[in-house]
Amino acid sequence: MARPENWSKLLELHLRQNHGTAFQAFVNKVFGRIHGDDFVPIRADGPKGDKGLDGFLAPGGTVYQCYGAENGKSNKSSNVCKKMVADYQKARKSRIDLRAWKFTHNMVDGLTADMAITLDELTKQGEIDGVEVGHFGIEGFRSLLRNMTDEDCQDIIGFMESSDVDKSKLPAALALVIEDLIKSFGASIDKSDGRWLVPADKLAYNDIPAAWRIRMRQYYAFSPEVNDSMATVDSDTVVAGIRHLYQDFRRQGLGPSDILHEMHAAIMGRITKENAEYREPAAMAVLATMFEVCVIFEENPVSKSTVSNHDPAH
User: Fold this and answer.
1) Cα–Cα distance between 263 and 202 in angstroms, integer?
2) Which among 198, 259, 256, 195 has a CA at the least distance from the CA of 230?
3) Measuring CA to CA, which of 76, 188, 289, 305 is 20 to 30 A from 144?
4) Taking CA 163 as the corner, what is the angle to CA 161 and CA 167, rounded to the nearest 5 degrees?
5) Helices (H), the chain
6) Res 278 pLDDT > 90
7) Structure confidence at residue 6 (pLDDT)
8) Distance CA 117, CA 208 (A)
9) pTM, 2 dp
10) How far apart are CA 163 and CA 189, in angstroms?
11) pLDDT at 2 over 80
């Protein structure tokens, strides 16, 4: 099994889309795959809580304390700082053999100055307590994934192959994705005529990476399910909103691969524990359906000049 194309971007996507308990589950999956049974995920025990322990690596006595910010960015730095201090103190009061404590987070753009100062203060306190204090962020995850087998990397940050999709589970996931898109786009988007037409400056076929072309073609097979879900909602808002996203990314000068990554991320939205099942294949099915013109080109490849001049209305 090949390592996912653009695996580093897929990692960032996973980190941004998993927050709260979903991020903790992602951390458990990564460290469990790396360390096996030496890594012990900790769950809350009723009113006792988790005693400030989210995951414990027995060799070395390292506690990984998770903080999963929404969309990989915290807008309340002071709250994060308070949580860091409180969690460290809880871990110190537990009876676990604490030798190292890592603030483990999904903030892909880094920590704020206040967070860094708080972490530095905890590092100094750790020296007094005999605990090595540090943090584990996106670079730490990248380092782990670089040393994984392609199969493990694909399993952790790859996405479901279309051949593995259980079509009976797809409608419920599609309904959730489309409902969230409507809430996200709202009434601010101009209404369309109800048809998705790829703009004249659409993605050039020859510039779309092969892996994306293949996935788009495969997931277009689920367009009947997408159309069924769209028929029950305000499809105009969804169609116009996705067109708006596409045009916005084009104006930013993004290349075809980056546009597809951004579109995919926007359609998939935020993953939570409640909506995680089949959300990614549902998002991929919506993306492929909306870009049906490009998918058709996969069956009958044409030159870039022909693509750029193609009238999507015909």
Assistant:
1) 13
2) 195
3) 76
4) 105
5) 7-17, 21-35, 77-93, 113-129, 138-146, 150-157, 170-185, 210-219, 223-230, 235-251, 256-268, 279-290, 292-299, 304-309
6) no
7) 67
8) 44
9) 0.64
10) 35
11) no
